[in-house]
Amino acid sequence: MRIWVDADACPRVIKDILYRAADRAAVETTLVANQLLAVPPSRYIRALQVPGGFDVADGKIVEMLAAGDLVVTADIPLAALAIEKGAVVLDPRGEQYTPSTIRERLSMRNFMESLRNSGVETGGPAAFGQAERQAFAKQLDRLLAAHVAKQAKGGA
Fold first, then answer.
1. Distance of CA 64 to CAs 3, 59, 77, 105, 144, Å?
2. Rounded to the nearest 5°, which phi and psi values hold at 64?
3. pTM for this prediction
4. Residue 5, H or E segment
5. Which of 73, 124, 153, 155 is the one with CA 20 to 30 A from 35?
6. pLDDT classification of 148: cutoffs 50, 70, 90
């Protein structure tokens, strides 16, 4: 398992959690962004800068991920593509997307986008706080523990 992070909009506190988890669990973690990222020195953490442009980072993540990898993103279309390829997807707020929940999220995203395009003020996401940070850390720990257990049983 590798971790892929849609890093352009990922909150700093979530990146910090991922850095610690990568070293603790010895899991290769790649942050993909269209800007230069500073990451701590680690054999498990790297940053990959892609050219600017609409969904370039998303496309690179989808291109490079393998089934069973973990993708961290709040981007619903990217999450849907990653799930199609067999990845596990975790939102920075701690929600794990599944094949059944991603369809609903994609429909809601498209509906809200159509409202915005017609001039309706829809507001933004709720503030990111301690509860979201804790939910993410808890879900990440659960997913990494499952990965370690699978490895211990001889799985990949």
1. 11, 9, 16, 24, 20
2. -95, -20
3. 0.86
4. strand 3-6
5. 124
6. confident
Q: Report the C-alpha gap between 142 and 132 in whole angstroms.
A: 15
| Residue count of the chain | 156
Residue ranges of alpha helices (H) inside 44-90 are: 56-64, 76-84
How far apart are the C-alpha atoms of 25 and 99, rounded to whole Å?
26
What tokens appear for 33 in the block? 């962004």
Average pLDDT over residues 8-30: 95
| pLDDT of residue 12 exceeding 90 | yes
**pLDDT tens figures, 119-135:** 777 666 677 889 999 99
DSSP E strand boundaries for 25-133: 29-33, 45-49, 70-72, 88-90, 96-97
CB 92 within 8 A of CB 136: yes
pLDDT of residue 111: 62
What does the radius of gyration of the chain's CA atoms come to, in whole angstroms?
16
On whether the CB atoms of residues 85 and 91 are closer than 8 A, the answer is: no
